[in-house]
Amino acid sequence: MTTKGRDRAALRGEAHHLKPMVHIGHQGLTPEVTQALDDALRTHELVKVSLVRMAELSAKEAAAAIAETLGAQVIQVIGRTCTVYRHNPELERKPGALPPWRS
Questions:
Q1: How far is CA 89 from CA 29, 54, 70, 86, in A?
Q2: What does the pLDDT average to over 54-73?
Q3: Are 47 and 33 in contact (CB under 8 A)?
Q4: Is 64 within 8 Å of 37 (Cβ atoms)?
Q5: SS3 81
Q6: Strand-pair partners of 19
Q7: C-alpha–C-alpha distance, residues 10 and 98, integer Å
Q8: Residue 8, SS3?
Q9: What integer pLDDT is reported at residue 2 of this predicted model?
Q10: What pLDDT sits at residue 91?
């Protein structure tokens, strides 16, 4: 599923208030970090990722690698932080309930 410009802008607004859920260290995208990201995307859909200064990847490179590896979409990259989104149709959604990244 591809997000359109309006949807992407709304997700950027939602991501502004999020704290990074996953931190990528100096070793980069290890299998453990990739698994943690996959779990976070499955349960929250919208995830903010932080990179340490000594990381071997730039934030843009990390975001592109995450998107390719996990089938996610890059919502934004600012400094050493990127935000990715992957819709999960299996998440239970109740009418009027908060989105999964807010709960």
A1: 26, 36, 15, 10
A2: 91
A3: no
A4: no
A5: strand
A6: none
A7: 14
A8: helix
A9: 59
A10: 84
Nearest to 28 by CA among 74, 61, 67: 61
Tokens of 45: 């859909």
Mean pLDDT for 2-8 is 79
62: its two tokens: 């990390």
Contact 34, 70 (CB under 8 A): yes
Q: How far apart are CA 5 and CA 95, in angstroms?
A: 24
Question: Tens of pLDDT along 31-53?
Answer: 999 999 999 999 999 999 999 98
pTM of the shown model: 0.89
Judging by beta carbons within 10 Å of its beta carbon (0-12, 13-18, 19+), is residue 36 exposed, middle or buried?
Answer: middle
Mean pLDDT along residues 58-85:
94
pLDDT greater than 60 at residue 87: yes
With CA atoms as reference, report the closest residue to 100 among 30, 23, 47. Answer: 47
